[in-house]
């Protein structure tokens, strides 16, 4: 059973793929779910509020955050691409979010970081949250910035944050890489719930993955959160192998944990 410890919860990026997957699930975590994105994405229903806001607009972000008890921050650019949109949404945007949290006394944030913070580690390695970042592109750099900024706001202002390095969250794994990185929608909700309800969160980095037999990430540094995944990519393994070719072990996509992101670009404006 999900315990409601927050009256009003904010979900940013509510129009995105994960936002849509969490919209109904997160209603179990609060009395009122405030949904936000930068463009109109429909009408609120019972138990919901809608606030349109561009993350690069500090005033709009302030209005979005005012009156909430905690934030699940999924908003921003979620793929590799030119730097300017990433700069506005993921760097300026996350600064605006934490400044608004500080001003409005919001003390807990769940920040959607990414496995692409560490995408240039090899698939033959197992890493923990203590390993230094090795971003595989500007998107990964922006998420590393968000992790560092959230740490500053914890150390200076006491805003607790869980930085969830989301792997690959889809209904099922799409390829062989995702057998290691897959995170089911239900496990994502379980992880967010654990981060919202653990008594002492502090500043924590946790890898967002289901209970996959093959994994590159050691989540032992996040046991205090109490996340226990219940799904696994293993049930999809035979089907994934049947429809995909063996990896080319000379291809950087198969060498590094970031997969295709390690070759994505360009970075220019």
Fold and architecture overview:
With 269 residues, the protein is an alpha/beta fold. It has a single domain (6-263), classed as Rossmann fold (3-Layer(aba) Sandwich), CATH 3.40.50. The protein is built from eight helices and seven strands; from the N terminus they run E-H-E-E-H-E-H-E-H-E-H-H-E-H-H. The chain has a seven-stranded parallel β-sheet, sandwiched between helices. The longest helix has 21 residues, at 83-103. It is globular. The protein starts with 5 loop residues before the first strand and ends in a 14-residue tail after the last helix. The mean pLDDT is 96.
CATH topology: Rossmann fold
List the secondary-structure elements in sequence, H or E. EHEEHEHEHEHHEHH
Number of helices: 8
Instruction: Report on the biggest sheet.
Output: 7 strands, parallel
Strands, total number: 7
CATH 2nd-level architecture: 3-Layer(aba) Sandwich
What is the gyration radius calculated from CA atoms? 18 Å
User: What kind of oligomer do you see?
Assistant: single chain
Which class best fits the helix and strand makeup? alpha/beta
Shape, principal axes of CA atoms: globular
